């Protein structure tokens, strides 16, 4: 018996990935960083591989090593590496490591010698996002050090890649500009003798809207979890996560009753308040106060007043709600429940954040689907 649960439909992840795969001739990497966007690093990774992904992508070295420890043998790319990490562990585990500085190339050379095998490196170019990656003025030095380390047998430059800033806004002028800059970077890499087998820049949004960006590999995250990176489009994706809880308490209160901390919400008429045991300690954004939609019984109600650490109060009106009834915050929408998109709209954020907030949460995650067996 669960009091609250995050239900993850692994078959939905598998099927979404299979659908994405059918949209491209490039290899598909599925991003499983941040605990698989809240869906579970290892289970989401396995479901993605079952759907035909040939790569998994993570931010941190720890995430990559966790996949390996779980027995995942597929190629893994880790791209968020600060100086001073035990990179030799990543090299020994056969993890592809993203590198944007000559300092990291030096560390990778040392790591390769310690691990006794060449480091698999994917050089990251900043083409306009101004986040990770080397800026154009640094490309020659970075490519030269990578080429030198490759010639010395310490590293193997497997990939060259970049990341879009505005792929979720189809037609944004930066997309073409970044793609052109990336091609310039690849041409420059060739002059240093770097001919990577994996050239990649596309995320979910570019995978769905810009086939000319697919190149050798696409890196899909949000779409694999069944959510669209582009507002108002679903692309036939199926949301994999459902967050729900059983009503703990239901009570009839009169009009004019203040509700939850600060009494920021006042009942307009006699109504039923349902107390639902999920709060910001579980991943519910506090910005959902008096805003987040919840499906209880046959109605979609709103959170009444502030989201607390462990619970929320929902004003369900005259709906005959009793303790034990299921209150669904969001899911695929099959039974009229709100979606992560509805929650994003209600709380001023993006669907990515809604699902990711439930990662590594105290709420038990239950996996369903054939892939889970
Ligand atoms: C998270 C991430 C992705 C996936 O992005 P989505 O928009 O979720 O498809 C791809 N590449 C990098 C570098 C990322 O950090």
UniProtKB/TrEMBL annotation:
Pathway: Amino-acid biosynthesis; D-alanine biosynthesis; D-alanine from L-alanine: step 1/1
Gene3D superfamilies found in the cross-reference section: Alanine racemase (3.20.20.10), Lyase, Ornithine Decarboxylase, Chain A, domain 1 (2.40.37.10)
Residues annotated with N6-(pyridoxal phosphate)lysine modification: 33
EC id: 5.1.1.1
Residues holding substrate: 131, 309
Superkingdom of source: Bacteria
Cofactor(s) this protein requires: pyridoxal 5'-phosphate
Pfam families associated with the record: Ala_racemase_C (PF00842), Ala_racemase_N (PF01168)
Enzyme class: isomerase
Catalyzed reactions: L-alanine = D-alanine
Record-annotated active site: 33 (proton acceptor), 261 (proton acceptor)
Domain Alanine racemase C-terminal: 240-368
Keywords for this protein: Isomerase, Pyridoxal phosphate
CDD domains on file: PLPDE_III_AR
Molecular-function GO terms, alphabetical: alanine racemase activity
Bilayer-crossing regions: none
Function: Catalyzes the interconversion of L-alanine and D-alanine. May also act on other amino acids.
Family indicated by similarity: Belongs to the alanine racemase family.
Full protein name: Alanine racemase
Organism: Actinoplanes subglobosus
């Amino acid at each position: 018996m669960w009091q609250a649960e995050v239900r993850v439909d692994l078959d939905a992840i598998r099927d979404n990935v299979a659908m994405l795969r059918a949209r491209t001739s490039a290899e598909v990497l599925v991003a499983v960083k941040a605990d698989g966007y809240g869906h579970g690093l290892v289970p989401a990774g396995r479901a993605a591989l079952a759907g035909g992904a040939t790569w998994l992508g993570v931010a941190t070295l720890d995430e990559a090593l966790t996949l390996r420890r779980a027995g995942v043998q597929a190629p893994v790319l880790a791209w968020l590496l600060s100086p001073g990490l035990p990179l030799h562990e990543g090299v020994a585990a056969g993890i592809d490591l993203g590198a944007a500085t000559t300092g990291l190339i030096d560390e990778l050379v040392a790591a390769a010698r310690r691990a006794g095998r060449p480091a698999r490196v994917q050089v990251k170019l900043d083409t306009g996002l101004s986040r990770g990656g080397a800026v154009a003025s640094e490309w020659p030095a970075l490519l030269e050090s990578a080429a030198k380390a490759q010639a010395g047998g310490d590293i193997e430059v497997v990939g060259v890649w970049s990341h879009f800033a505005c792929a979720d806004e189809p037609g944004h002028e930066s997309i073409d500009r970044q793609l052109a800059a990336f091609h310039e970077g690849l041409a420059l890499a060739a002059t240093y003798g770097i001919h990577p087998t994996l050239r990649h820049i596309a995320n979910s949004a570019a995978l769905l809207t810009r086939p000319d960006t697919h190149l050798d590999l696409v890196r899909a995250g949000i779409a694999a979890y069944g959510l669209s990176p582009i507002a108002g489009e679903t692309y036939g994706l199926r949301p994999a996560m459902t967050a729900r809880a059983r009503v703990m308490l239901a009570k009839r209160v009169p009009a004019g009753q203040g509700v939850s901390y600060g009494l920021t919400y006042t009942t307009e008429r006699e109504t039923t308040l349902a107390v639902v045991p999920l709060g910001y300690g579980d991943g519910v954004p506090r910005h959902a106060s008096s805003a987040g939609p919840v499906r209880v019984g046959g109605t979609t109600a709103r959170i009444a007043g502030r989201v607390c650490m462990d619970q929320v109060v929902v004003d369900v009106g005259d709906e005959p709600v009793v303790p034990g009834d299921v209150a669904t915050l969001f899911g695929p929408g099959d039974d009229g429940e709100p979606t992560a998109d509805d929650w994003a709209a209600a709380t001023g954020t993006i669907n990515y954040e809604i699902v990711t907030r439930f990662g590594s949460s105290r709420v038990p995650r239950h996996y369903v689907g054939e892939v889970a067996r």
